[in-house]
Write a structure and sequence with these properties.
about 20% helix; 5-stranded mixed beta sheet; 10 helices; 9-stranded mixed beta sheet; about 30% strand; alpha/beta; elongated; single chain; about 425 residues
């Protein structure tokens, strides 16, 4: 901390040299909440303050700010919104320590029933679940310490302030649409289009399908529930792997535990076909993925449309092993948790059948709470030339904890993007 702030902490220098008016509040012109989507949903990640004058970067520290119920990890001055640390600027970025992921074993959720064995208490096909309104992410913040302007003035504490608006830096990259199928039925969906499309070039498309707990009329619910859709639009990923991302929003349960599916399955395929005729989409590199209900739908699609997808990422799902023989001709990476009584035994059986049919399956096991670096290292070691079926099992864990982690495994994502239909 700089010397002038240490001196002011004694109160002596302030009493001698500055009038009370010097420390008046009211210099913050705007407070903005910035959200991030984590494995267990959208949460407050950062707060941006805009002051009425440039502040000195050396005068701002994390200790100067407080956010109720959160730990401030870092605070710095930037010259532009969402900018990097600068010597001076009107904007202060206050970054927060991420909250622990919610305890999936004790947190009641409609999707928990979906982890049951075949036909036991799962969501009913065509039901509308128990959708909850999307709650906007907001922020409250106060300035506790003194900060200094570039002109040498001192700004004293600011009482608790509320955000006036929220930025959803990944969610807002998607646009919302409604698809009308040939039978006149509609399907809401979210679509991300790569920012820089090069003429004459085609791009992969990732289809993400959400779980039964996210069944809702709110079109953006699938974007805020977890990482399944937004992971593919992260700037770092798009820089190396520009792609379209499609995230339908289902307002009914589209598969059940008797391995039946509704018309939404074909409707989603028709949607992908429609988009492929409108945009430069590489039809050899269309990938499907989903969690729980979405995973079950992915498998059902692979069974019914075995020549449609370039690869499938199957997260915490199950299906009837008596009909999954078509998976032997496809590129598959499955993930389940040992603590999931529905997905784990089903995936064990399906993968064993692929082995029995002569389709080699590479398996890996890792602790559910292992650091991302360890998971990346293991999965990278699993990948072998000529192998197109992989099975990662988390030790312990639960149904929903699986997808809290699965969508941030970089080697798996890169393997998927290296696959093509029929190859």
């Amino acid at each position: 901390m700089v010397k002038w702030k240490l001196c002011l902490g004694t109160g002596l220098l302030a009493a001698c040299c500055f009038s009370a008016g010097t420390f008046a509040a009211g210099h913050v012109e705007d407070v903005e909440a910035i959200s991030q989507v984590y494995g267990d949903g959208e949460k407050l990640a950062e707060v941006q303050l805009r002051y009425d004058a440039d502040l000195l970067g050396s005068s701002v520290t994390a200790e100067d700010y407080a956010v109720p119920g959160r730990t401030v990890a870092k605070a710095f001055v930037s010259a532009v919104p969402y900018g990097k640390a600068a010597e001076k600027g009107r904007y202060v970025q206050v970054e927060l320590e991420p909250l622990p992921l919610s305890d999936q074993m004790v947190d009641p959720h409609p999707e928990d029933k979906h982890k049951a064995p075949v036909g036991v208490g799962g969501p009913q096909l065509g039901s509308h679940g128990n959708p909850q309104p999307l709650v906007p992410v907001t922020a409250k913040i106060s300035q506790k310490g003194l900060v200094k302007t570039a002109e040498g003035r001192l700004y004293g504490g600011e009482p608790e302030m509320s955000s006036s608006h929220t930025r959803q830096l990944l969610i807002e990259k998607f646009t919302q649409h409604t698809f009308t199928d040939q039978d006149g039925k509609k399907l809401q969906y979210n679509l991300y289009v790569p920012e820089k499309l090069e003429k004459g070039k085609v791009y992969p498309l990732v289809l993400f399908m959400h779980d039964a707990g996210t069944v809702s009329p709110e079109v953006k619910a699938t974007l805020s529930q977890g990482r399944g859709a937004v992971t593919w639009v992260e700037p770092e990923w798009q820089k190396e792997h520009p792609c379209f991302v499609l995230a339908p929003q289902y307002d009914t349960v589209i598969v059940n535990d008797q391995y039946q599916y509704g018309p939404e399955l074909d409707r989603t395929i028709h949607l992908v076909e429609s988009l492929s005729s409108q945009y430069p989409i590489d039809t050899q590199r269309i990938y499907n993925t989903g969690q729980s209900m979405g995973c079950m739908t992915s498998i059902a699609m692979d069974v019914k449309y075995p020549d449609f997808f370039g690869a499938s990422y199957l997260v915490a799902g199950k299906w009837n092993p008596q009909v999954t023989a078509p998976l032997a001709r496809q590129n598959i990476w499955a993930v389940a948790a040992a603590g999931d009584p529905g997905a784990k035994p089903s995936m064990d059986t399906i993968m064993a059948q692929l082995d029995a049919d002569g389709d080699r399956v590479i398996r890996g096991t890792i602790a559910q709470d292992a650091p991302e670096t360890q998971v990346d290292q293991l999965t990278e070691q699993m990948i072998q030339p000529g192998v197109h079926a992989y099975y990662l099992l988390y030790q312990g864990g639960s149904h929903r904890s699986t997808w809290q982690h699965a969508y941030d495994i970089t080697p798996v994502k890169e393997w998927i993007f290296g696959q093509k239909k029929g190859a």
